[in-house]
Amino acid sequence: MLFILNGLERLNLDFRLAGTELCCDPNEPVPPPAIVVNLLRKYLLPEASIIVTTRPSALRRIPGKYVGRYAEICGFSESNLQKLYFQMRLSQPGCSGEDGGGKSPGSSSGEQDNLVEMLSRNLERHNQIAAACFLPSYCWLVCTTLHFLYFTKTVPPSQTLTGIYTSFLRLNFSGEVLDSTDPTNISMMKYVAKTVGKLAHEGVMSRKTCFSEEDLQQCFEVEMKTESELNLLEVFRSDVFRFFLTPCVQPGKELLGEKKTLAQRVGKELSEVIGKVSEDVVVVLNIISKVLPLRFLPVLLNLLRIFPRYFSRLSGKDRDTIARTMAEEMFKEEDYFNDDVLDQINSSILGVEGPMRHPDEASDDEVFELFPIFMGGILSRRNRAILEQLGCSIKNLAAFEIAKAMKKTVIRNSRKGLPPSELMDYLFFLHEFQNERFTAEAIRSLRTVNLSSVKMTPLKCSVLASVMRTTCHEVEELNLTSCNLDTSSLRTLFPVLLRCKALHLQLNNLGPDACKEIRDLLLHDKCVVSNLRLANNPVGEQGAQFLAEALAGNRSLTHLSLLHTSLGDRGVEVIAQHLAKNQHLQELNLGYNSLTDAAALGLGEGAKKPTTQCSDLYFNDISEEGKRELHTLRMDQDGVRALVFLTAGTDVSDYWSNILSIVHKNLPFWDRERVRQHLALLLQDLESSRRQTANPWRKAKFLRVESEVKKMLGKLRDGS
């Protein structure tokens, strides 16, 4: 028979004969501690095998003569075991999200395999993360964070980032007492907050993540060095110290040619550090905060220390100061060009593809934008409940007064117009804060939402949809240009898109399936979209069919851009057939879609109604004869103005600057040789029209436009 006794430090065992009587009869009723002591004495069931787990500090409670073998469990013995853990954890059922999101099981499995591979590569070249993940608890933390980043699809998201870390602390320390033999019975979490939390607080305040032995000595100093306090410190060093601090594994500072496994290298350094903090050798240690996402932990510890200690006795003025500090950290201008926080976390876990950093080069990943986000997250009701269980309480009144004091500053700063990545951080802060009333007041003042070039993952889409649904006000403009959107993204954001007057969806991967979602959007009775830009998306002929159906029944759309969407003649013909049923569209851009004369003329006939004023057809394969016929249609009473060239008869078109501006913006995404050919045709047309006019003013206008076209051709030739 094998007995496994887990967590022996919780029992105060007495091996003295006077304290615990001998017992060899399994049927004799005795207290539980007596059963355990007699099992370990080998007096009760002597032939049984026993495995005992305990903290190192409790080893002395069992006399050595009763122990046959000691083994210290330090962590993963080799990196392959880490990789195996990640593979098993990330391939569990349900890890691909709450729903399929339109993807096949094979694609989800491929994404999981890709995550494991990227994570493994980053562990191989980023020794600091590997050192932290030496402990399986942090491997769990990394995997849970990856689940949150990649597989969150519900609205609102099922959890918050701060919630992951408070749960992490609860899983590891809920109900844990530092030393059960000490009369103070202090919780482990509270002691950690007093020591490592103090060090983390100083690090966050001074933007510092590496600490020397001198810093550690100050951290572990106790005001009254009583015997009890010194004993608690010794227990902390032996049992908990390793969990929160890790040796700084800096590339370039290891012996060349020394090939050690991860376990040998990290295990040796840990054994040298633990218990020898007071030696006169400087040991550079790194708080877990050095490694994203693990660096969040000391920030959290810092908050555990600050909030419970001061909030109950803070004056209103002090709460205003805290609120103002949080708002200032949220809107620091020096952080405006950073990636948003979620992308920073992702890059820190999975690494960034590209050349390795030189060992002597300073790190640029010291990002402290998470500080206000975690502050907001800690104040949420759920996280305060978890902290209450850990012995760190934050009163409801304190949370309410800080939110009230912060509201004015946050709303005022958000109205200034934040860069896209900062705006995403702001939305994420509101999600973490989990205060619906606060969020509603903050979002109500947000009339323009510009998230262009932010990689809108399923999580970010869920956060945006969740935050925006706290109000029902109309949004003047939502810019999601170049955001890696797909069909599932549109599905998640559907309620938000309905309320947007101007909707920018250019440069995304929106094909026919996405156009089906857009059709449902435009046909919805609550849709207010008046300006829709779908330029540079692979819409194609099938997508054009869905958009044509939308045009036939929509009553809000006045401007539609389908520039460079691979429609072809057939796609435009389908749109032209349904266009006559639409009585509201004023402008339609079909430039750069490989249209020929027949399709262009068919569109002109289909758009002959009072509301349609302009149809952009530049950069298509329309001949001179086709251009003249389109011009004739325009001369009719109900004709539509078709912009094909930069000229209008013997004058320059009033819209030449608009056309060249659009071309200039899209040069990085278009086929340069084809653009060069079209620009050459435009230049020939300009020169021909200039020769036909005798008006010197018009000639000057032609020369000006020609110079702009020549500049653009020169840039194309130079490749700039």
UniProtKB/TrEMBL annotation:
It holds the Pfam family NACHT. Residues 652-713 form the NLR family member X1 C-terminal domain. Residues 2-86 form the NACHT domain. The keyword Transcription does not apply. Gene3D superfamilies: Ribonuclease Inhibitor. It comes from the Eukaryota. InterPro entries: Leu-rich_rpt, LRR_dom_sf, NACHT_NTPase, NLR, NLRX1_C. SUPFAM superfamilies: RNI-like (SSF52047). Keywords: ATP-binding, Leucine-rich repeat, Nucleotide-binding, Repeat. GO terms for molecular function: ATP binding. PANTHER family: NACHT, LRR AND CARD DOMAINS-CONTAINING (PTHR24106). This is NLR family member X1.
